[in-house]
Amino acid sequence: MEGAAVAGGFELALACDLITAAYTAFFALPEVARGLVAAEGGAIRLPYHVAMEMLLTAAPLPAPDAARYGLVNQLTCEGEALQAALALADSVQAHSRDAVLVTKQIVQDTRGFDDHTAYTVQDPLSTPVFATAAAAEGAHAFTETAAAIRSPGTRSAEVSGN
């Protein structure tokens, strides 16, 4: 995110799982000032008092404030947001597709629930992933890494299996 995400642009940004923005970027929801109402989640992900101020005054929300409220994951210098976003996407893409998709679903499906209810929603989603080959490989790699940490004399090549 470089520049401004205003009205529909802000709602599009909120639809993203991870948001990288330049320090100089800002978000705005001017719908009320134009006789409209926010839609597409524009008011839902904001803390109550921030949503009220943005919506009722049409005041822009600078990217550092958006980051403080959890709307932006990463801040960059101006002109570097795209590269940082691509690097972030690459780091996510490097993981097991099943684990990434199910984790996203768990985070989305358990939002707003108390712990007990969230666990009952999470367990049926997460349990099948533990039976995949990628999960078995991940557990094996974790065990090897943990063993290396306990045995400081172990070389990294031995830990990675090379």
Summing up helix and strand content along with how strands pair, one would put the structural category as mainly alpha
Give the CA-CA distance, first to last residue. 40 Å
Mean pLDDT over the full residue set: 82
Q: What percentage of residues falls in helices of 4 or more residues?
A: 40-55%
| Element string (H = helix, E = strand) | EHEEHEHEHHHHH
**Strand runs, count:** 5
Low-confidence stretches: none
Tell me, briefly, the overall form: globular
Widest sheet: strand order?
1-3-4
Radius of gyration: 21 Å
Please give the count of helices: 8
* Content of β-strand: 5-15%
Q: In this structure, how is the largest beta sheet organized?
A: 3 strands, mixed
Describe this structure in words.
There is one protein chain. The protein is mainly α and 162 residues long. The chain contains 8 helices and 5 strands, in the order E-H-E-E-H-E-H-E-H-H-H-H-H. It has a 3-stranded mixed beta sheet. A two-stranded parallel sheet has the order 2-5. Helix 5 runs antiparallel to helix 6. It is globular, with a radius of gyration of 21 Å. 15% of the residues are buried.
